[in-house]
Amino acid sequence: MTPQELRARAYAMPINSPAYPLGPYRYNDREVLSIGYRTDPAALEAVVPEPLRPAGDEARCNFTRIEDSTGFGHYNIAAQIIPVLLPGGEAANYTRFMFVDAHPPSAGGRELWGFPQKLGAPSLRVEHDTLVGRLDLGRLNVAIASMGFKHQVLAAEDALAGLATPGVLLKIMPHVDGSPAVCELVRYSFSDIKLAGAWMGPASLSLHPHALAPLASLPVREVLWGAHVVADMTLDLGTIIHDYLA
């Protein structure tokens, strides 16, 4: 393999059988239960990296079931999200934690965009009249969310506005000596969004302390809303908005 051939193929590891194909990535019937809740403002300030600023005292937990995605196939996600303001004042969603149950999306998400992904056992399913999201690590439960199943239609424009809000990630990749090779804020977004359905309903969220999944360090003071959204969309490749090593 010549250096030119190597560079042309050097988008993922291992070079002779990459863990994922090159995007962008299309998701079909992507289903999300999202719970917004009020938390401790001081705790938010402590975990949101400057120059981002918390947009208020709200945090969110999302539970996602993906049945059909380009290159990644089927997998599940649980994430903790913080609404933030970008330096120019634009609203965005900063992902603090994300747990997935499959290796290819974990590798691709971390290496390409910088999604803060670890392996876990997230799930999203309908239990009789209730939509239930869970995150378990081994035998310990970290989070449980529930919402009444399709109690009230969520306006399409509100659901689409939420899906169109850009996301922000703190991407970190080390040199072989452990020093940072990449330390930057990355912006990403979804495009070509086709909404299949969106609903709201009575919701609850419980977070349990875990040494290696400290979602509960942003405690639930009041559940504000719950939303259930199903849509097709494309996850585009990202852009750098701030380089901490520059």
> Helical region count?
4
Distance between the termini: 33 Å
- Structural class, from helix and strand content? mainly beta
Largest sheet: 13 strands, mixed
User: What is the assembly state of the chains in this entry?
Assistant: single chain
Number of strands: 17
What is CATH's topology name?
Answer: Acetoacetate decarboxylase-like
Q: Give average pLDDT, whole number.
A: 96
CATH architecture: Beta Barrel
Tell me the fraction of residues in β-strands, as a range: over 45%
Structural account:
It is a single chain. The chain has helices spanning 3-9, 41-47, 103-113, 156-164; strands at 25-38, 53-54, 58-66, 68-69, 75-85, 91-100, 117-119, 121-127, 130-137, 140-148, 152-153, 167-174, 180-188, 190-200, 203-207, 222-235, 239-243. The chain is 14% helix and 52% strand. The strands form 2 sheets. Strands 1, 2, 3, 4, 5, 6, 7, 11, 12, 13, 14, 16 and 17 form a 13-stranded mixed sheet that branches. The protein is globular, with a radius of gyration of 18 Å. The chain has one domain (23-167, 190-239): Beta Barrel (Acetoacetate decarboxylase-like), CATH 2.40.400.10. Strand 5 (75-85) and strand 6 (91-100) form a beta hairpin. By secondary structure, the protein is mainly beta.
For the structure shown, list the relevant keywords:
four-stranded antiparallel beta sheet, 246 residues, Acetoacetate decarboxylase-like
